[in-house]
Amino acid sequence: MNEAVNLKGESMIVMTRAEYDDLIEDAGDIALVRQAELDYPDSPSMPSELARAVWDGELHPLAAWRKSVGMTQAELAAAAGLRAATVSDIESRKIDPRLSTLKALATALKLGIEDIVD
How many CA atoms lie within 13 A of 76 on its CB side? Predict the structure, then answer.
């Protein structure tokens, strides 16, 4: 991106098509986030470093959301009516939980089931 001046002396920004496309994509992402915040005001948000760890396969989505809301495994388990070992086993990918377990966890986190499955 470069700065230039037009014939009227007004400052202009000159950028490549790739820079422009990235800017438009970022603006679209920001608009989606803002709309989601309006549509779901009570839903938690996830810090980018946790989201990145989920996308990279380093962290189970359930663990990322739990950490995002500041809960321990024991606290989440209690809120969902489960054993802490169950939460630990899900997050470490030792077990595939039942649908009823996923519903209880998602409800405790104020999320949809699709948000916490691997």
Answer: 30
Is the domain spanning 48-116 CATH 3.40.50.300? The answer is no
Helix then strand then coil, % of the chain, to nearest 5 = 60, 5, 35
Domain locations in the chain?
2-39, 48-116
Tell me the C-alpha distance between 1 and 48, whole Å.
26
SS3 call for 5: strand
CA distance 93 to 83: 16
3-class DSSP assignment, residue 31: helix
Q: For the whole model, what pTM was predicted? A: 0.71
CA–CA gap between residue 83 and residue 86 (Å, rounded): 5
Number of H helices, E strands in the chain: 7, 2
The 10s digit of each residue's pLDDT in 9-33 is: 999 999 999 999 999 999 999 998 8
61-68 vs 84-91: helix crossing angle, rounded to 10: 120
